[in-house]
Amino acid sequence: MSTVEIAPGPRRVTLPETLADSRVMATRQLRKTLRRPTYIVFAFVQPVMFVLLFRYIFGGAIDTGSVDYVDFLMPGIIVQTAIFGALITGLGLTEDLKAGVVDRFRSLPMARSAVLLGRTAADAAINVMTLIVMVLVGVAVGFRPSEPAYDLALAFALVLGFSYVFSWISAFVGLSVRDPETAQSAGFIWVFPLTFASSAFVPTDSMPGAVQTFADVNPVTLTVDAARALTVGHGDALGPALGTLAWLIGLLLVFVPLAVRAFRRA
Amino acid sequence: MTPAPAILAEGVRRTFGEVVALDGLDLEVDVGTVFGLLGPNGAGKTTLVRVLATLLRPTAGRARVLGHDVVAEPLAVRRRIGLAGQFAAVDEELTGRENVEMVGRLYRLSGAEARARAREILERFGLADAADRRVSTYSGGMRRRLDLGASLIGRPPVILLDEPTTGLDPRTRQELWSTIDELRREGTTVLLTTQYLEEADRLAQRIAVVDHGRIAAEGTAAELKATVGIEMLVVRVANAANAAAAAASLADLAAGEVPLVDTATGEIRLAVSDANASAEAVRRLDSRGLPIAAVELQQPSLDDVFLTLTGRRAEDGVQQAA
User: Three-class SS of residue B31?
Assistant: First the structure.
């Protein structure tokens, strides 16, 4: 007979247990990401390359009217970085699926939701670091935020919230396609139009009609416009900020349940 | 009241679209025993393990672990099982210690408990020196040991091992075998799937042969061998090209299934219940002018059991699936 008696225990995982498990999962993920050179390049080096590319190569040819291109660019490129950073969530989940790690987690008496909660929290933490690096690089290449500190903080929070919500979308896509390579290409298929058909790099009024219509309602445009207004005072802040919030809440309500369902089935 | 069996499966069926992976499988595993589930790839062994580990719901039937239903009480089941698979499910970027402690925390051990247990486990599995190295520097055998170790940290009374030694070198396999023996001595129930007959023979008190999602036969190794026939008659014809003709002329001597013919070596194997069968075989082949290179009567091996029950060698199944 076994010498170990297992206490009956509750039939469901409790909320404090879920939070504890999420913390364990987040710690795991932070360690994994920070110890992987390819992720470091993806999270920190690649965004910096983009800044240099647009600031010094394309920037001279883009007319942004009254505002300096570097001030126009930095909020846009920071949002682009946030959305690219979110792609890591889905990619990492497919790798865990493939390695059988997800099977192990699902066979343990842990909260299943903790795998996704911990993962998205860890990716948000990485994104905070990336965004700080981006702001510093921006300042180094001439980005000069003009607005008060609480506006800057609000812009930062908005962009972070944006990346967090996109982590859930990316989790859903990754768990649905299951294969790391497919997840990577699938990720770019939805991320590229969103980032480039937006106000991130160029003013949308230079785009042809249909593209402009898409760009103007694109959540990336709204987030970038809000961030631009809150950092360099370019344009109106309230409208885009409320639009961004509406998008984020809507996307969260749709994609959290979808991602959880995809995780159960994966 | 008799205690609930460690594992009880009743009519478990699982389909994936058109494919029937488990076809009404019944199984009972006593507490504190090692049970070997033997079968080729695609027989349904992994599907059964996944059902018992609450990773898959059965399409029909019921499965219980220590009296807890895998569908109705998945959490209770998860508290009582440890799962280690054919692919080491460990994190490459974490150290061995971090991997084991993490699983400990997820079994709800306190931080101190998880650390102490992880130390014990790393010691026991010969990973103490490598404990603080990243798993990416580990050999395949070390990863497998770490994977098994991690599944033991919560001291689960039931361990599910899905082909734990597939792809391991002989020495590492031996080590894993002695670990499984130890687990049983400590009172742990082990359900082990394997394609290796000698592994089931060596480790398991009871063995079930799984084929096409059902249990084809079940018993101790000795009982299974006894089902095959009294003895195995092995005839090798001098010219391998004659093997098929020779087998045809011996077919009605077989006690069980039709004889197995190896056309490359000219070897014919059949289970016989009549002690005179070898003399009769020699007479028949002689009268047909088929020269004989060797005739031998052997005790049946588990391989023969497998063959008789499923019509193919266990290793063939591996190749078919590859």
Answer: coil
How many structural domains comprise chain B? 2
Residue A2 has pLDDT above 50, yes or no: no
Contact B54/A104, CB-based, under 8 Å?
no
| Residue of B69, B91, B94, B98 to mutate when probing chain A, most A C-beta within 10 A | B91
Per domain, the residue ranges of chain A are 18-29+37-57+67-265
Rounded distance, CA A165 to CA B205, Å?
53
Among residues B219, B247, B277, the one where a domain terminates is: B219
pTM of the model: 0.81
Give first-to-last CA distance, chain A, whole Å. Answer: 36
CA separation for the pair A184, A164 (Å, rounded): 18
We report the CATH number of the domain holding residue B258 as: 3.30.70
DSSP B225-292: HHHH-SEEEEEEESSGGGHHHHHHHHGGG-SSSPPEEETTTTEEEEEES-TTHHHHHHHHHHHTT--E
Give the domain extent around B169. Answer: 7-219
- Average pLDDT of the segment spanning B173-186: 91
Asked if the Cβ–Cβ distance from A9 to B87 is below 8 Å, we say no
Contact B246, B270 (CB under 8 A): no
pLDDT exceeds 80 at position B320: no
Residue B260 and residue B189 in one domain: no
Question: Measuring CA to CA, which residue among A99, A90, A50 is closest to residue A73?
Answer: A50
Q: Position of tokens 């670990």?
A: B179
**How far does B211 lie from chain A, in Å, by closest CA?**
24
**Same structural domain for residues B46 and B149?**
yes
